Hints:
Mean pLDDT: 96
Largest sheet: 5 strands, parallel
Amino acid sequence: MEKIAVVTGSSSGIGYETALALARDGYLTYATMRNTSKQDKILDVAKNENLNIKIIELDVDKPDSIKAAIEKIISDDQRIDVLVNNAGYGQFGCTEDVSIDDFKKQFETNFFSIVRIIQEVAPIMRKQSSGIIVNISSVVGRMGLPGSPAYISTKFALEGFTECLRYELGQF
């Protein structure tokens, strides 16, 4: 049975490289991205290397987009074996220079979107009695530094959440 991987934020950077690595390891990889007009780069590599990569639109800031993407994957392939939560961005500036709205946006993308995706995928993995979830964080999720408190706070939250998941989902 072919293993299915889902990687968020696959249009560039860590998500792009992770999607390619999983496909090279034999996974059918759903490379998700908010803006599918950026798909050509990864699809060109997939074609040249004969990799099994599918592009699917998923905007992590939109709950309906998350739900639709996961439903489409399950409809097409009936399972998800690996989920890599990578999508995110950095909001930089000292505390007094970053608005509360910008703090909220940072948390929405870097933390709450991951919770939403896992709420969609964890029941699938429980039903399968298997699955791997990888949350891409940062070393700054373990130490504070000046100049990016919004970003760092989201990574601290993600580290704590991931630790909870280790216990909640560890049996499979």
